[in-house]
Amino acid sequence: MATVSTNEMKAGTKLLIDGEPYAVIDNEYRKPGKGQATNTIKIRNLKTGRVLERTLKSGDTLEVADVEDKDMQYLYNDGEFWTFMDPKTYEQVQAGKEAMAEAAQWLKGEEIVRVTFWNEVPLVVYPPNTVELTVIDTDPGLKGDTATGGSKPAKLETGAVVRVPLFIQQGEKIKVDTRTGEYLARAGK
Amino acid sequence: MGCAVPHWRPSATLATLKARAELYGSVRSFFAARGVLEVETPILSHHATVDRHIDSFAVSAPRATGAAHVGFLQTSPEFAMKRLLASGSGPIFQIARVFRAGEQGRYHNPEFTLLEWYRPGFDHHALMDELAELLAHCGIAGPCARLSYREAFERHAGFDPHMLDACTLRERLRARGLAEPQGLSAEEIGDADFWLDLWMSQVVGPCLGTQTPEFVYDFPATQAALARVRPGTPPLAERFELFWKGVELANGFHELTDADEQQRRFEADRRWRAAHGRSDLPYDRHLIEALRAGLPPCAGVAVGLDRLLMLKLALPSVAETLAFAGDRA
């Protein structure tokens, strides 16, 4: 069982706490001049995304979670599982619905995604930060509306719905930020 | 991630390095005008601090040199400077590099710079006056308000710190929704100072000196460290700290001059360290002998110059004040 001490916990360190995997976001060291030092760590639960704080005495250790990030290519979805391939080893893995909560609505195939494994099972799949997708359904824009003001919902080819400016038409390809779900720009056709 | 600066580059900008040089110049001109002598004392010592919560780096000589001893990097120049005072140096100051193992964070670097000075004939209030004058001389605006440890807690925590036991301090911290450390020992849970430290570092300290620097003085006698204790109900340690923007900048004492009492405190700290699995280290016997020979009544203070510079320049962490912070040293 590998452990890590408070002063080795950096942003990104993976910890196992109460049987759940966490990633360290921030680690604040506090010490009164002549007193006990503490570390307050801000951690994200890798399963639920929930962020919480824990305070530890400096020098205490926690167990390291067997968590690994891999860049993989999305191949296909069979209705139940999403299949990804390691482009170096051609090894394939399947991720279930829970791991796909963030990514499913942005992927159409062949994208390179970040897969976080916990005990060698896909835990979370992160879509690319930006994707380019085609609008398959949106209301026609009103005449006279140009680049400024107003937005409308648009359905994309993957099923995601985002708000777009009124001038975007059905069939156009747009660039979207998957972290915020926001329209960024028109993409080349 | 993508914006990582290569590790060979400095942590501080050139403008910051110049500001540091100016600060040192201001400190030296301040003390030169007041007849306070600049001194240098050994960084590497045969002795270590036995402070319960400060750890010294141990340094060993290569076996081939035949040097048998292990030395320690100073965590503060205090002991050596007191030996100078006891031998009649008069008022002295030092800009010293000090080292504390495991102290790493936004406001900590394992190697840092202390300005430490001693004033025979001063008490802690007279030294607070002089520290405030030094800050003004270095271009840091006052006035520096002064409140007792009790007043600081009453104002920012809502209770008298001398009146509550460990159990109540713990309950109130919980009631405030503050996370308490995991895995505490029964001894820690029952130690009022442990909980007062948490209150200080998490609640009270961050509220202090939000505009201009602020002094806190007269600590609980159980947190005296090397300060003299003034009898009374409760007895109080004649110790002060300076806070600015919620960050602790300085720690000063109306110094303990009683050799026997100093030795008792060292022995008690050493026993505590041994009982808690901390390294058992030789305390500075020369200091005890110096106190026996006679340390003049005096007050002394240590100021963290990296933090002072950080706050003066509104930098986010001490790393930005250092040519090379610990991660690239």
> Which structural class should the secondary elements of chain A be placed in?
mainly beta
**Helix count, DSSP H or I runs of 4 or more residues of chain B:** 10
Question: Number of DSSP strands of chain A?
Answer: 16
Biggest sheet descriptor of chain A: 6 strands, antiparallel
- The CATH topology assignment of the largest domain in chain A is SH3 type barrels
- Strand proportion of chain A: over 45%
3D structure, described in words:
The complex is a heterodimer of chains A (189) and B (329). With 189 residues, chain A is mainly beta. Chain A has three domains: 3-63, SH3 type barrels; 67-126, Nucleic acid-binding proteins (OB fold (Dihydrolipoamide Acetyltransferase, E2P)), CATH 2.40.50; 130-186, OB fold (Dihydrolipoamide Acetyltransferase, E2P), CATH 2.40.50. Chain A is built from no helices and 16 strands. With 329 residues, chain B is an alpha+beta fold. Chain B has ten helices and twelve strands. Chain A binds chain B through residues 7, 27-40, 53-60, and chain B through 51, 53-54, 102-108, 178-184, 188, 193-194, 197-198, 200-202, 205, 223, 225, 241, 248, 251.
Question: What features would you highlight for this structure?
Answer:
heterodimer, A: 189 residues, mainly beta, SH3 type barrels, OB fold (Dihydrolipoamide Acetyltransferase, E2P), 3 domains, 6-stranded antiparallel beta sheet, 5-stranded antiparallel beta sheet, 0% helix, flat, B: 329 residues, alpha+beta, BirA Bifunctional Protein, domain 2, 9-stranded mixed beta sheet, 3-stranded antiparallel beta sheet, 10 helices, 34% helix, ligase (chain B), lysine-tRNA ligase activity (chain B), nucleotide-binding (chain B), Lysyl-tRNA synthetase, class 2 (chain B)
Short description:
The complex is a heterodimer of chains A (189) and B (329). Chain A has 189 residues and is an all-beta fold.
